[in-house]
Amino acid sequence: MLVSIAWVPAALAGLIAIHFAQKRCFPYFWKDVFYLWKVIQYGVRLELYKKRRRVFTVLDRFVQRAEQIPRKPFVIYDGVPYTYRDVDERSNKVAHVFEEHGAAKKGDTVALLMNNEPDFISVWFGLSKLGCAVAFLNTNIKGKSLLHCFSCCGAKVLVVGADLLDMLEDILPNLLEHNISIWAMNAESCLPGVQTLLDKVERAPARPVPAERRAVTSLKTPTLYIYTSGTTGLPKAAVVTHMQSTKAAAGFWAYGGHADDIIYIPLPLYHSAASLIGVGGTIEMGATCVLKKKFSASQFWNDCRKYNVTIIQYIGELCRYLCSQPKSELDWQHKVHMAVGNGLRQDVWQEFHRRFGEIRMCELYGSTEGNLCFMNHVGKIGAVGRSNFFYKLFFKYVLVKYDKVRDEPVRNKHGFCIPVAKGETGLLLSKVNAQTPFFGYAGSKQLTERKLLRDVFAKGDMYFNTGDLMAEDKEDFIYFKDRIGDTFRWKGENVATTEVTEILGLLDFIQEANVYGVEVPGHEGRAGMAAVIIRPGNNFDGKKLFHHVLDHLPSYGRPIFIRIQELMELTGTFKQQKFKLVDSGFNPSVISDPLYVLDNVEKSYIVLTDAVYNRIVSGQQKL
Fold it and tell me: Domain ends where: 483, 504, 522?
């Protein structure tokens, strides 16, 4: 008997040795395995969907949830719960109104201009039940930009929230001239040519819409258009297919979320984070979400306590605002165990943990139109995602050398791009193939083509250019470093420098403008700055510039700083030189050119003195 069990201690010792060796050499092995298992599970599900005659979409999942858990709260808004059945029936009513009035049918595109509210979702789902694609318009844009966003997606119908009707005043004649059908989410219209929707929805039947109206045969069918600044020019309507929305809806689930979770969504629904990941993820798990009309740092944790929130959505700037709030004895008193988002700086990440407890921060990386996503499923502070050998088998990406001065990838003597070494910063490219397609933008094919790089490593290959400079360390963690091209991020929004340049160029005293973003201590992203040349015989007018950008640009797009130059430096390819300007920042003690800063109190651009500069970098003066 003793002989027969003599091997047990040796076996146990061997298992212990293997365990410690795994912990030392492969510390993330099991986390990677569990995460990849979920990715494979979802991938298999998508492949099965492709083989069906009728694809199963996020909307189908919602209708299924409304049948399975009709009385469960789906959305809580201003303290009022709306069940899965409530939203299902409300969306049916919306669909019947548009169908009965002949305003929308399968294959049409309808633009939606609404702030966060339950009817945003009801209108979205109602139109989707008719087989329409829905374009989410950014509620911050106005005038020419708003008209551009509406027209570029080919929409013939516009639905407007009751609180946003004033945004139509400048473009209403143009819309009516082009026979655009405009519907306001109120019972009484105050604008000529605008139809009311709310009164008609209240009277419409709640009976289900036949499933064949929304049926599609391919996951590649467009379902949404979500706007992004891309890397240049006016906002672009990124094509969002059922494949992309289905993948995005798996985000919370992949991180370990479940049906008992309550998700807090303070981000705008016109962005993919709140709509695709937030609302879509809630539906995928059969959970409940708390929808906030607008983010409020002072109300955030009170809301989380009031509604027993367990998962929050964030952008990096949001977390910084929360950390800047006065400390409270209630900071740790909440049920939040997970936060999902992007753009969280390492120092804010650490401070967030100190202030609010060891909440699992699930950072992710991806763009609305992109064909690649990274997820930091192990919680490594500072990393936007994690890769490994198996991930690279499914998703072909590479970091290549990039020349900031020439503003283009470095190519070798054969004309091919050069991969960077581990730990070195490079431009992130993702291969375009059948498994990771790129659907591009609505409208001009040139916009889509500009995001593609060809002949990267071989003749005929094609990669999506993310426009982001990244680095990958020896443990396969991915880190965001910078953004290239004519865009930067401020206040959680992408700012297209070309658009801002065009607006500044409308002023009579500005001859030329070069717009870029500069880092400000204690702030996420980059603050807008414009180097301008004054027309001969003119003077800089700070008040006139202030009111001009106030009228024509959203708050996040208005340049914070102005730098007056006599000559605009160009690159070797005759583009405006930005990188030297970016590196020099906005410090008046090291820049000899005249500097100005936007002042909301004075309603003007005032001289940027050393004293003002010090107040900004110390956080005493808000931007």
Answer: 483
